[in-house]
Inverse folding.
């Protein structure tokens, strides 16, 4: 597995562990209330598991497994590096906006970064989606 | 597949509230619907495919620890089944038994997720040198 795929997949695994931890704490707190403020973890729980885990894992596996160029392997990686940084800063910006009570602008910026990440990734990966004969 | 079918059936039951008057127990099925879909189907499908497709760890243990793989499966499904049963009942008639079953459910699912992360982490590696030369 190439470096970028490993980075994406391992960061996704960290987000999975964190998202499951938050979810477990909230569910336990629902059963036997011990710290009501735990409900504030709900947006972070959803963000970590839907974007930080599921989307990021899909990007990592796609980068690893989609057809490679005949010469040049996976080609120019800059778009995927950009996607990695945009996606993760987007996830944490959205989470921190809620936790720290930042102005809504930062929430919007987080979402825009996530969208930019997927666009950068799609632009990079698009030419690799070809048939066995090399047809797009 | 079982959880996908179950989630869609629960979704249909939730939708039926707009047509018929259903028992109050149905109102507590919202979180069960989401988690049957997202944990029972999507997460479990990802876990299964990752266990199958991630790079092999080594010749002796190609898929890492089979025990951790089984633990992931059993803990996740047992935890989720407990949630499906206890959460609506606890919402309708909160009692210590249902509350503690939710705590147990949270613990089991969290441990299941952790087992997956631990077992998958080592399998996200660069691969053998010969393979690397072929792949760039």
């Amino acid at each position: 597995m190439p470096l970028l795929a490993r980075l994406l997949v391992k960061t996704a695994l960290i987000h999975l562990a964190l998202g499951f931890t938050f979810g477990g704490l909230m569910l336990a707190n629902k059963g036997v209330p011990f710290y009501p403020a735990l409900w504030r973890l709900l947006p972070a729980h959803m963000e970590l598991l839907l974007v930080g885990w599921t989307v990021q894992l899909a990007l990592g596996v796609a980068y690893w497994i989609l057809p490679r160029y005949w010469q040049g392997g996976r080609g120019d990686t800059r778009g995927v590096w950009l996607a990695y940084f945009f996606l993760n800063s987007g996830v944490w910006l959205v989470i921190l906006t809620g936790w720290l009570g930042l102005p809504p602008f930062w929430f919007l910026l987080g979402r825009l970064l996530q969208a930019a990440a997927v666009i950068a990734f799609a632009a990079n990966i698009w030419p690799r989606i070809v048939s066995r004969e090399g047809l797009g | 597949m079982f959880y996908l079918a179950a989630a869609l059936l629960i979704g249909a039951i939730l939708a039926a509230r707009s047509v018929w008057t259903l028992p109050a127990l149905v109102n507590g099925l919202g979180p069960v619907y989401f988690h049957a879909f997202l944990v029972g189907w999507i997460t479990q499908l990802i876990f299964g495919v990752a266990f199958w497709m991630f790079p092999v760890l080594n010749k002796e243990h190609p898929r890492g620890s089979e025990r951790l793989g089984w633990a992931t499966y059993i803990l996740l499904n047992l935890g989720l089944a407990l949630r499906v049963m206890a959460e609506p009942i606890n919402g309708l008639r909160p009692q210590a038994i249902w509350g503690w079953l939710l705590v147990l459910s949270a613990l089991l699912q969290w441990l299941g997720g952790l087992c997956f992360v631990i077992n998958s982490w080592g399998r996200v590696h660069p691969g053998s040198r010969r393979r690397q030369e072929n792949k760039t």
Summary: Residues 61 and 74 of chain A are 13 Å apart (CA to CA). Chain A touches chain B through 27 residues (CB under 8 Å).
